[in-house]
Amino acid sequence: MKLSFIIFTLLQLIQMNAYGAIRYVTPAGAGAQNATSWANAAPGGNLQSVINGAIAGDEIWVAAGTYYTTAGTNRNISFSLRNNITIYGSFAGTETTLSQRNLLSGLTSILSGEIGVAGNSDNSYHTISNANLNNTAIIDGFIIRDANDERTATITDGLGGGIYNNGSNPGNICSPTIRNCLIMNNHATFGGGIFNSGYNGGTASPVILNCVITNNTANGGAGIDNFGLLNGNASPTITNCVICNNHASGRAGGMYCWGGNSGNTNPTVINTSFVKNTAVDGGGVVCDRLNSGGGSSGNSNPNFRNCIFWGNTASGTGPQFFILGGATFTATYTDINLTGQTSPHIISGAGTGNINTDPMFTDINLGEGPDGIWMTYDDGLGIAINSLNINAGDPAITTPVSDLSGYTRTGIFDIGAYECRRYVFIGPGDQWTTDAHWDVGFVPPSMYIGTIIIDADCAKQALTLDIQSQLIINSGKVLTVTE
Ligand SMILES: [Ca+2]
Ligand SMILES: [Ca+2]
Ligand SMILES: [Ca+2]
Fold first, then answer.
1. CATH fit for domain 23-336, picks 3.40.50, 1.10.287, 2.160.20, 2.60.40
2. Buried-most residue among 7, 146, 343, 415 (CB within 10 A)?
3. Of the ligands numbered here, which is closest to the C-alpha atom of 68?
């Protein structure tokens, strides 16, 4: 009995080890700097070595602050993920459980390629460079920015500023999970934000969930470039994302999908908003199955459900999307502006549930919202209470239950990355009788019944009034909030 008990205990210990340890990193490090606790956190300069030293099942917890690819000037140095390791960012540095991490106030951990002299001319080619990964390699809770791979494009160079997922060549796979990340201010010749290379028989089909991809630039595929050319596969799954204000000097401001030479790029895209991306052709998306040597083959058939295409522009052809070589663009339950979309740049299939009407963003020109922080309650690409996107999504889509800003979706999902917030937000100086203060930016109805949230700057700080049927303010009455 005793021996079996010991064996059982040993098995338990082995099993506990299999569940993994947590390794802690802060910008300056602390104590013994051995990553065993916040009090003994490893310094930021050791972040990649902590990742490299982790064993399967480990988690890396990273506190708020900026982490650079290198303290030197070698542009080839990048961060990289590993299978069975989850790297969590945006901790305050005191948490003892993952659930204590607060993402509702925005992301606070930055992975930056800003090295050398100020400005991007000498920055890291990639902030993150990945190879040989499956979706157990997870990054969650980071701002990923400032890379610049301006080199002339080859099959290895000039690809992927923020994140380069290199799954090229036969048998290779690079399909990590990228979750709760803001990928911004990156540049590459192709794929400024993210480049997924399944070139030549490889696979690069990452899971991209709850991410904002914005202000990236490239010649082609400024936000995301999916490269399945030559028998490869580059078909990411993209859910609850915003892809906005990315700018291509050639084609595809938002996302390029190239599946020629018998390659495949068939992304599945759900509840994602493509807004104000620009290009010569295909402001939002390009679907391309042209071979590199002439003719066409393979598949480029992205599928969009519960998505928004609004405010994307092309100086040439196809403001929302552009089709080459017999590729297809399939969209259902999607709000898409079809003005200027001429054959062959048209939606394939029945287009069930599609609408073509202003989404009523709270502020299309300020995606991050008045607080200047992405993925929070006031984001400008949230939708107003009079938007026709409300409850207009595909009834078959019921997960994930939270939207991009962590707000719980209700009923049938709303179209786009954000569920309409059914409450009124009041800041200093706001009055009930003016329209502008309504967080949803609409003309108040004659009577409002619902939740009122008062801004923390107001005298009654952070007071939340849940007034369901308890307080009714009739039109014409004035409630003034003063600092
Ligand atoms: Ca620099
Ligand atoms: Ca915000
Ligand atoms: Ca809904």
1. 2.160.20
2. 415
3. 1
